[in-house]
């Protein structure tokens, strides 16, 4: 049986201990980043702009990946949850800014609601440390 060293990565959110989750979990070379939104005590960072919310989400996800010793280059799968599928093109463009040459597996789905009414998008992803594409 393979054993993996586990590292929980916290964002410092007050919800993590209440709900019982981590922003990310590293197990061996695998990194799993939890569903991440642009929430803040003052409301969604980016307001009613789904692309701006996605950019903030990727800032937060990038920090979690870094804490786990990974990078966007090692992401192999992303999942995008949209409150309105009409935002797919704008959020997809932000996804493409980061992953255009990496091209992880992707699913994008419309959901009935997210954790707060002003949240328009939530993103989660998986990475494998060492899975980065070789330099061209």
TrEMBL record:
Pfam families named among the record's database cross-references: Ribonuc_L-PSP
InterPro entries found in the cross-reference section: RutC-like_sf, YjgF/YER057c/UK114
Protein name: Endoribonuclease L-PSP
């Amino acid at each position: 049986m393979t054993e993996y060293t586990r590292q929980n990565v916290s964002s410092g959110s007050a919800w993590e201990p209440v709900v019982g989750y981590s922003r990310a979990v590293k197990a061996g070379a695998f990194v799993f980043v939890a569903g991440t939104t642009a929430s803040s005590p003052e409301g969604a960072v980016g307001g009613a702009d789904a692309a701006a919310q996605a950019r903030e989400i990727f800032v937060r996800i990038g920090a979690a990946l870094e804490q786990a010793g990974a990078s966007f280059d090692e992401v192999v799968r992303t999942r995008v949850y949209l409150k309105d599928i009409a935002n797919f093109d704008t959020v997809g463009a932000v996804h493409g800014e980061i992953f255009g040459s990496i091209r992880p597996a992707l699913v994008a789905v419309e959901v009935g609601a997210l954790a707060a009414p002003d949240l328009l998008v939530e993103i989660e992803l998986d990475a494998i440390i060492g899975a980065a594409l070789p330099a061209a």
